[in-house]
Design a protein that fits this description.
globular, two-stranded antiparallel ribbon, alpha+beta, 4 strands, two-stranded antiparallel sheet, about 80 residues, about 25% strand
Length: about 80
């Protein structure tokens, strides 16, 4: 998902982000193949446990975020 500048600022400021791969280098982010062409090359995903765990949801969620490229990738799984 491409994000607007205001959304990037709000998301970046609202949660503590850490680079993906630091805690689990053997578990890279692999978007669904149909979405892969929309992911910019050189993307550096970050994630936030606080964002992923905020508010009870009908599905488990995880967001991957690259503020430098203004993109987010959402992963949803049924409980």
């Amino acid at each position: 998902m491409r994000l607007g500048a205001d959304d990037v600022r709000a998301l970046a400021a609202g949660y503590a982000w850490q680079p993906v791969g630091v805690d689990k280098p053997d578990n890279p982010v692999e978007p669904w193949p149909a979405l892969a062409p929309f992911v910019p090359s050189g993307v550096r995903w970050m994630r936030s446990d606080a964002y992923d765990d905020a508010q009870a949801q009908a599905r488990w969620r995880r967001v991957y975020f690259d503020p430098a490229r203004s993109v987010a990738l959402f992963e949803l799984d049924d409980h």
